[in-house]
From TrEMBL:
It comes from the Eukaryota. This is Rho-related BTB domain-containing 2-like isoform X2. Keywords: GTP-binding, Nucleotide-binding. The keyword Nucleotide-binding applies. PANTHER family: RHO FAMILY GTPASE. Residues 265-296 form the BTB domain. SMART domains: BTB (SM00225), RAB (SM00175), RAS (SM00173), RHO (SM00174). InterPro entries: BTB/POZ_dom, P-loop_NTPase, SKP1/BTB/POZ_sf, Small_GTPase, Small_GTPase_Rho. GO terms for molecular function: GTP binding; GTPase activity. The keyword Cytoplasm does not apply. CDD domains: RhoBTB (cd01873). One of its GO terms (biological process) is small GTPase-mediated signal transduction. SUPFAM superfamilies: P-loop containing nucleoside triphosphate hydrolases, POZ domain.
Amino acid sequence: MDIDLDYERPNVETIKCVVVGDNAVGKTRLICARACNATLTQYQLLATHVPTVWAIDQYRVCQEVLERSRDVVDEVSVSLRLWDTFGDHHKDRRFAYGRSDVVVLCFSLANPYSLRHVKSMWFPEIKHFCPRTPVVLVGCQLDLRYADLDAVNRARRPLAKPIKPTDILSPENGHEVAKELGIPYYETSVVAQFGVKDVFDNAIRAALISRRHLQFWKSHLKKVQRPLLQAPFLPPKPPPPIIHTPDQPQNGQGPAALFYTPLCTDVVFQLQRGQKVFAHKVYLATACSKFYELFTLELCASELKEKNWSPKRDHCPFQNGGTQGATCTKCVGVDCQCEATNGQLGVSPLPLRTSLSDNALRGHGVVPVGWGKELTEWGRGFIRVCLNMVEDPLTQCETLMTVVQMESFIQGEPLRAVLEYLYTGHLDQSRTDLMQVATIAEALEVFDLRMMVSNILNKEAFMNQEITKAFHVRRANRIKECLSRGLFSDVLFTVDDGSVPAHKPLLIANCDWMVAMFRGAFRESFSQESNMP
Ligand SMILES: Nc1nc2c(ncn2[C@@H]2O[C@H](COP(=O)(O)OP(=O)(O)OP(=O)(O)O)[C@@H](O)[C@H]2O)c(=O)[nH]1
């Protein structure tokens, strides 16, 4: 079936636009995007390369394609006829170049050779066959500049040459060549059709301006503008980073060493005879539900008031107009009239998970022992929990910590073994106090450790490997959750486009740089906020 063409219509400018460029740079896809309104996802595109030429006959046989060829640019009605060509350098394209109105010269933004050939081969060929035809330079496959190239290479055909990061061309590379050749430059991606309209509208402009020079009597061409500059491409937002929590530390101190060298601790267990065991909430809470519950308990101001504790006011920086909405960590919400709590008593609970420790409170030992929450009915082994100023075991500076007072049957060494298990997933089977470890594990509801002890006593210690494996999987998931929710975070990294809450203990355990940063040798070691370059 032949369809009526536009050649004979008055005031419709038919424009022959020839598309040339190396093999596989994206000529056919670009034509299909304009002529057939074809959009494909990046992976559909990658999975298929058919080295074909889009048939010009489509305008004759397909009504829809013919209709899409019609357009109005700068008030001129046009019919755009796109001619696809072979990318093969040795093919004869003189038939295509004949009577062309504009040439769209394509290269791939992921193939530097194709840009080199623009200068060395394509532009000279165009100038040879149609010296007066305007040319527009187009960098195709723009989406690859921002794509995950590993994923793209995996999705490409097995024999396709992988795209290296160094293959990706910048906008300047294209602009430089275009400037040298004195032609306009555009970038396109057929994913989401970026730039497709820019290329062809401006190719039409270039063709119409050239025609206006020759056919000056055509008054309807007087409003045609020179090819316009392209608006910049807004790169897609990068996907959120994949959070990977290694089971075994790559470097840094490792969880076990961190437990025994208690850097940046935020919880202390008070045992009989004044013994203290320091630890890190994030490690305990992500390995044991009982500790998770404990550290997310909320201390209500009203309860604290019942304890009849009245804070000293002179320390409070919020008294004289502090930050609205911030929690005054010194008054801890008790009977405080400062702006930070808006004086609203009883509605300003202080969660134990609040990680406003460290520097903000150092040197203010004003929170008295005695307030907090009774835990005797909450769990076996626990007496009370509260927030208090405690001397940091490493820096000897006063720091606000969660203080957990334990019952007398909880003894230092076996408790340490339980806590070490919560850091590492391991239990030393040669210990002589395994029964006491089991008792504490049971009280703290660390049932997998209880089972480990039973396995050792039953001479089935080999089964503990599975428990350790499951421990790490479970803990990694909980750490991911804490990271995504910022729970128990005690440091905030400020980067260009926002801020990321993090956990000093996790960073220290896995990275020597972080150990150096938080060890206390720098002023910033105590800061809760880090500005990243
Ligand atoms: N990611 C991405 N891939 C593209 C884009 N355009 C084309 N491709 C892919 O690049 C490969 C080549 O595309 P074609 O349009 O067939 O290239 P061509 O220049 O016509 O190739 P020849 O016919 O061999 O001259 C195909 O696998 C396309 O799917 C694009 O904008 N983005």
